[in-house]
Amino acid sequence: MNLTKDRIKNDFKKKLMNLYSEDITESSKLHLYVTLGSLVREYVSEKWMKTNEQYSKNQVKQVYYFSMEFLIGRLLGSNLLNLGITDLCREALSDLEIDLSELEEVESDAGLGNGGLGRLAACFLDSISSLEIPGHGCGIRYDYGLFEQKIINGYQVEIPDNWLRQGNVWEIRKENKAAIVKFGGTVTSVLEDGKLSFKHENYEAVLAVPYDTPIIGYNNNTVNTLRLWNAQTVDKDFDLDSFSKGEYSKAVEHKYSVESISQVLYPDDTRIEGKLLRLKQQYFFVSAGIQSIIRRFKKNGLPINLFDHYIAIHINDTHPSVAVAELMRILIDEENLSWEDAWKITTNTIAYTNHTILSEALEKWPIDLFKKLLPRIFMIIEEINRRFCDEVREKYKDERQVHNMSIISDGNVKMAYLAIVGSHSVNGVAKLHTEILKNEELSNFSNFYPFKFNNKTNGITHRRWLMKANPALSELITKTIGESWITKPDNLINLLAFSKNEDFQNSIHGIKQNNKVLFANYVKDKYGIIVNTNSIYDIQVKRLHSYKRQVLNVFHILDLYYRLKENRNLDIIPRTFFFGAKAAPSYYLAKETIKLINAVANKINTDNSVNDKIKVIFLENYSVSLAEKIIPCADVSEQISTTTKEASGTSNMKFMMNGSVTIATLDGANVEIHDAVGDDNIVIFGMKKDEVLNYEKNKNYNSYKFYNSDPRLKKILDNLINGSLGVANSEFSNIHKYLLANNDEYFVLKDFDDYIKAHGKIDQLYRNTAKWREMCICNIAHSGIFSSDNTIQQYSKEIWKTDRIHVDI
After folding, report:
1. CA distances from 420 to 183, 390, 415, 535, 656 (A)
2. SS3 232
C-alpha cells in the first residue's frame, strides 16, 4: 500500500463527497470521523481479503477465540498505529485544517465488554494478528454495552450504553453467512438401519447474523477477523394482523423477544428470566460460531475426521463452555460420526482458560432451565457425564469422588467441569492462580488429568498501552535503545542500563509530569476540580468487587484524613487518589462502596484545612479510552486484592509499563511482577497465600479482634454509621455489617495496618527523587515480559499448535 500525504488528502475528500455530498468546511466532526474510518477500512480491505484467501489456499490451522467480551475500545488510533500511517494521516488532515486527535475523540468505546476478561481478549486478538498467526475472535454484537455510568449525588446510576447510536464504521454485515440457532422444543430418538439418530422439533429458530471487524496486525499484511453475532428473527418480525387489530405491542413481541439475546452485555441474572437470557446468549454465539467454522472448513474440501488438525477453538472462561456439547452435537447429528470419533475430535480441538477461583464465576445452571432451553445439548452433556463418571469410578472406586467431580450434580450443570472434561488443555492466567487451581480449587481434576493443566500468564498489547497511550514515552524509549522493542518487547530490558542516568531520569520525569498536567486539565474540565500536579497520583481503576478491596483503599484515605485533622502540620507528600469502577447493577454492596468513595471525596475535597494535601476523585464511566488517559500519568498503581482471589490482573501490567510503582499484595500476576523487578522496585504488603488459605480452611478469623484492638479501625468503622461522613447513619450499614457482623470475607481489617505502613513507605520513597525515578525505569524495563505477544506465542506453540503465516500482497 503506497500511501502519501497527498493521496490521503485526495482520498479523504473523495470519500467525504461520496458518503455525504459535503465539503470539509460544512462537515460535522462525526462525518469527518466516519469518512476517515471508512477510508482506513478501505485501505486494509485487500489485506483482509488476501489474508483469508491464503489461509484457505494453504489449508493452515486456524484458531478461533470464543469470548463473551471483547473490550476493544476505540479502533481508529490503534488501526492507524498498526498500519504505520498515524503521522501521515495527521499531517494530511492538518493540511485540511482537521485535528486527528479530535476525530479520535468522536469514536465511541465499543460496548462489547466490562473488565479484564474482555480487555485481555482484545489484547490477544491484536497480538495474534501482529504475530501473523491465523486466528479470529467470536462473540456477540451487543446493541448496548453493560451500561453507561453516571454519578448522581454520589450514587451510581445506570443508563443504556447505546454505543451503536452513530453506527460502527469498522464492521461489515455478512447476512449471507448467517446461521440458525435452535432453542427449546423436543428431541426424539429414531433407530434407522441400526443407527440411533435424533430429531429436534417444535424449536424456536433464531437467526444469527455475523458482523465482521478487521483486526489489523502491526507492520505486516495480516488482517484477521473479529466476528460478532447479532440475533434476529428468521421470518417475520412484525405481525401485521395484530397491528391491524390495534394490538401494537403484540405485533412486535416476537421480534423484541429474539433481539433481546444480543441486546445487552450481562443481563441481570438475579431472576430466572435473567438466567435464561444469559444461557441463551452463551449458546447463541457458540452455536453460530461453530456452525460458521464447520461451514468454512467443509467449503475448503477438508474431511471432517481431520477437523482438529486444522481447527483450534479456545474458550475464554466458562461462558462458552457449551461449545463442548455443541461441537459434539454437530459432529454426531449432522456429520454422522460415532461418539468415540466425535469425542476425540472435540477434545483435541477445544482448549479452556480458567479466569477465577470465585465460585460465583464458575458457572452452573439449574437442570430444569438448561434441559428445557437446550434439550439436545443436555442429552449430550448427560452422556459425556455418564462416561466420565464411569472413568472416575473405575479409577477411585469412591462414589463421593464421583459425586464431587460430576458435571451434573446437586441439581445443576457445572460448566467449568464440562470445559475441563471436554478440552485437551486447561490453563490458569498467572503462576499463583494456576498453582491454586491445581492444588486447591480443581485438585480433583488436576490429579485426574495432570497432563491438561498448565499456566499462561496474561499479557497486554504494548502497542496500545505504551505506543498509543503514551507516545512521548515510546519516542524516548526508541531514541534511547532503538526500535527493536516494538516487535520484540523483551528488549525493553535494555533500559536498565539507563536507570541511574540522571538525564534519562529527568526525561522520564518530564514526560510523566506532562501527562499529569494533561490529565489534571481533563479533570478540571469534566469535574471542576483543581488537581495538584505535584502531588502523587495514586490510582485504583478496575471493576468494583469486594475482593479487589476498594474499601481498604478508602480506609487508608480516611486514616490519612483523620491524622491531618489532628495534626495540620503532618509532613506528607500531597496525594491525589483516583478511583474508576463500575459496579454490577444488582451488586448492592459494590454500589454502596461507590457511594462511600464519593462521600469521602466530598468530605475531603470541601475541607479547606486538608484539601491542599489530599484529594479524592471518582472517575465516572471508566472505559478503555479513559484508561489510556489515566494510566500514563499514574505514580502509584493500587493492586491490593486479597491474596489468592485475583486470578491475574492486567491493569498492574499497564501501569508498570508506563512507569508506575506498584503497591501490591502477592496475588495474581503481582507475584510475577515482584519476581521481575525485585523487592526494591515494588511495595509489597499483606497476607501471603498460606495464611489466607489457613484462615479459610480453619475458619478461625475474627474481624472484631482487629476492630477492638486498633483505634484507627474502630474510628473509621464507627464513622461509617454515625453520620460523620455527611450522609444518613444507615447509608453504609451494609459495608459495616459485611466487615464486622459477616466477618470480613476478604480480610480488609487484617491487612489494614500493613497497608498503612506500605503507604508510609511510598511517601518516603517518593521523597528520594533519584531512587523513585530509578524504580519507575526499572518497572518499564521489566514490563516487556508481560506483553501479550509473549503470551500468545506460548498459546500458539504449546496449546493451539499453530504456525506463523506470512501474508503476501
Report:
1. 25, 16, 9, 48, 33
2. strand
Q: Do domains 59-74+109-427 and 523-792 have the same CATH topology?
A: yes
Model pLDDT for residues 578-596, shown as the tens digit of each residue: 999 999 999 999 999 999 9
Thinking of the domain 59-74+109-427, which architecture would CATH place it in?
3-Layer(aba) Sandwich (3.40)
Q: pLDDT tens-digit profile of 654-694?
A: 999 999 999 999 999 999 999 999 999 999 999 999 999 99
Listed in sequence order, the residues at least 6 apart from 560 whose beta carbon sits closer than 8 Å to its beta carbon are 572, 575, 614, 759
Mean pLDDT, to the nearest integer, of 301-327?
Answer: 97
pTM score over 0.85: yes
How would you class 158 by CB atoms within 10 Å of its CB: exposed for 0-12, middle for 13-18, buried for 19 or more? Answer: middle
Can you give 733-773 as a three-state secondary structure string?
HHHHHHHCCCCCCCCHHHHHHHHHHHHHHHHHHHHCHHHHH
Which of 674, 629, 630, 665 is CA-nearest to residue 785?
A: 674
Over residues 35-70, the pLDDT tens digits come to: 999 999 999 999 999 999 999 999 999 999 999 999
Rg (CA), the chain: 27
Q: Which of 35, 225, 650, 662 is catalytic?
A: 650
Residue 248 has pLDDT above 50, yes or no: no
Answer yes or no: 543 catalytic: yes
Domain-by-domain residue ranges, the chain? Answer: 1-58+75-108, 59-74+109-427, 523-792
Q: Is 318 a catalytic residue?
A: no
Superfamily holding 523-792: Glycogen Phosphorylase B; (3.40.50.2000)
Which stretches within 132-230 are classed as H helix?
none
pLDDT digits (tens, 9 = 90+) for 415-461: 999 999 999 999 999 999 999 999 999 999 999 999 999 999 999 99
Angle between helix axes 5-20 and 86-95 (nearest 10 degrees) is 70
Given the residues 141, 278, 319, 355, select the one marked as catalytic: 355
Instruction: Indicate which residue of 74, 376, 456, 548 is catalytic.
Output: 548
d(CA 391, CA 395): 6
Three cell numbers written together for 283: 449458546
The predicted structure's pLDDT at residue 201: 95
